[in-house]
Amino acid sequence: MMKILITGANGFIGKNLFFHLKNLGYNNIVGISSQNAEQDLENALSDVDFIFHLAGVNRPKDSQEYWNGNYGLTEKIASYLRLLGKNTPVIFTSSIQAELENEYGRSKKAAEEVLKSYAFNTGAAVVIYRLPNVFGKWCRPNYNSVVATFCYNIARDLPIEIHDPAKELSLVYVDDVVGDFVKTMHKIMQPCDQKSPVFYTPNGEFNISIYKVTLQQLADKLYAFKQSRDTLLMPSLDSKLNRKLYATFVSYLPVDQASYPLMMKLDHRGWLAEIIKSHSFGQIFVSRTKPGVTRGNHWHQTKVEKFIVIHGKALVKLRNISSGQFMEYKVSSDKLQVIDIPPGYTHSITNIGQDDLITVFWADEIFDPENPDTYYMEA
C-alpha cells in the first residue's frame, strides 16, 4: 500500500480526507500540521508516494503570514523534493481568490507557480484545485466559513449577521471535494510506461458540484432545519444542496442537545406521537396500544397509509366500503410486515397480544384538521 502525506492534516479538509482514505483501506498516511517540526516534514517527504498539500493560511494577524504559510511552505516542499531528486505527485488546494488582487489570493497564486515549475522541471503530476467556499462537518465556525458560522450559531440560538442578503455564494461540499481528490489520485497513480503526465488546472477545473445560494437563502434553510425539531416539519431534502446542508447543520448541534422530546397524545388506549412530517413525503408517527384495544375504524377518500407492528401482536382489518370485500391480517413483531391501507377501505388495528402493541404508521400527507379526509366506519 502506498504511503500518503497530508499537509494541513488537522484542518477541515485534511481531517475529512484522512478519514475518507482510512475508509478506503489506506492505512499508511502521514499527517503534518503546524504542530510538527520542519524535520518531520522533510522526513515525510523523503519516502512518501503521494502528497495532498492542503496546508495554508487564510486568516492571519499579519499579512506576511499569508506568504510564509502559502507560498513559503509550498516552496520548501518543492525545493526539498527537487533536492532529493523526486517527482512525487502533488494535489494542491488553492482558492478561487488566486484570481484576485489581495494578499491571500496573491500568495496562493505564487504557490501555484511554484508547483507548476516543479511539475515542468521534474515531470511530476501536479493537480491544483482552485476551490470556492467548502462546507461540511468539522469546519471551524466564526472563522472563515459562513456556512459553519451560520450552522453553529443558529443551532445555539445565537445571532447571525447578514450585511447583503442577496450576495450569492459558490459552495462545494467537503465529501465531494475529498472524493474527487481520491479519484484524481487513482488516475495519476495508474501504471504507465511513459513519464508521468502533468495535470495542471489553473482555472479550477474539477468534477465537483458547485452550488449557488444567496446569504438569505442559506440562512432561511438553516433556520428551517432548526425549527423542524420543534414543529417536526422537515423542509424538502429533494435537492442535493439541501441534503448536504442538513447533514452539515446536524453536525453542529451541541452534543448535549442531540435529543429532543416528542409530544405524546395520551388517552385510554395508550399514546400516539408524531415523529417527523414533510410536505413531500407525508408524516410518520408511532403509537402504543394496550391489550384488547382497537384503533382506527375509519376510512380515507385519498389518503394512503402504511402500518408496521414493531412490538406485540395485532389484527388488522380492511373492508372495501364499495364492494364489501373484507380482509384481515394477523401480524407480529416476530416477522415484520408492512400493510398498505388503500383509500376507500375502512380499517382498524387491534392489539390481540398480552403485551402493549407498538406500531409505526406512515401517511402520504400531513394531517390537515381543516380537511382531515377521515370518515369513521366500523371495519
Largest sheet geometry: 6 strands, antiparallel
How far apart are the termini? 65 Å
Give me the number of helical elements.
8
Q: How many β-strands, per DSSP?
A: 19
Shape: elongated
Mean pLDDT: 93
> How helical, in percent, are the residues?
25-40%
What is the spatial order of strands in the main beta sheet? Answer: 9-10-11-18-13-16
The arrangement of helices and strands along the chain is: EHEHEHEHEEHEHEHHEEEEEEEEEEE
Q: Any idea what the radius of gyration is?
A: 29 Å
Low-confidence stretches: none
Strand content: 25-35%
Task: Please identify the structural class as seen in this structure.
Answer: alpha/beta
Overview of the structural elements:
With 379 residues, the chain is α/β, with parallel strands linked by helices. 30% of the residues lie in helices and 28% in strands. It has eight helices and 19 strands. It has a six-stranded antiparallel beta sheet, with no helix packed on it. Strands 2-1-3-4-5 form a five-stranded parallel beta sheet, with helices on both faces. The chain has a five-stranded antiparallel beta sheet with strand order 15-14-17-12-19, with no helix packed on it. The model has no long low-confidence stretch (mean pLDDT 93).
